[in-house]
Amino acid sequence: MAELHPRISAALEAAGVAFEVMDCDPALADTETFCAHYGQSLAHSANAIVVKSKTGEERFVACLVLATCRIDVNHTVRKKLGARKVSFASPEETERLTGMALGGVTPVALPAELPLWVDARIMDLDYVILGAGHRAAKIKVAPAYFLGTPNTEIVEGLARQVA
Q1: Residue-range definition of the domain harbouring residue 137
Q2: Exposure on the CB side of residue 159, measured as CA atoms within 13 A
């Protein structure tokens, strides 16, 4: 069974919500591939994406959106960050900020200085499947977890449904 980073395990256990660690072949960790191979629902899978401002003071935010949605970078995220232009953080910036490589970024136990915005439609689910901090596992957790995490905001319209 895949191991979680102790920081991630501790955060999940401290939250007091049910969670499950799901093993994953690292080559199959990309969300669509994972769901197809392991028979999981895209509608219950989410991606953590780090976005940064390109104008004004450099600011970063982690956004959690369902796999069936596209993050609304040019409207909701840009306005909430207070920037004229925003873009996705580079893989190097993402790893520097989160300590996690792309394909394994989880919104669980993010550094306190990195805000987390969760698309509101995630909160309507009974569970959501997340990255586990590396590509060898996924985490299945109740969205209620995000009601008790620091520096987290539930955001209406953070993403738009595409699938």
Answers
A1: 6-158
A2: 24
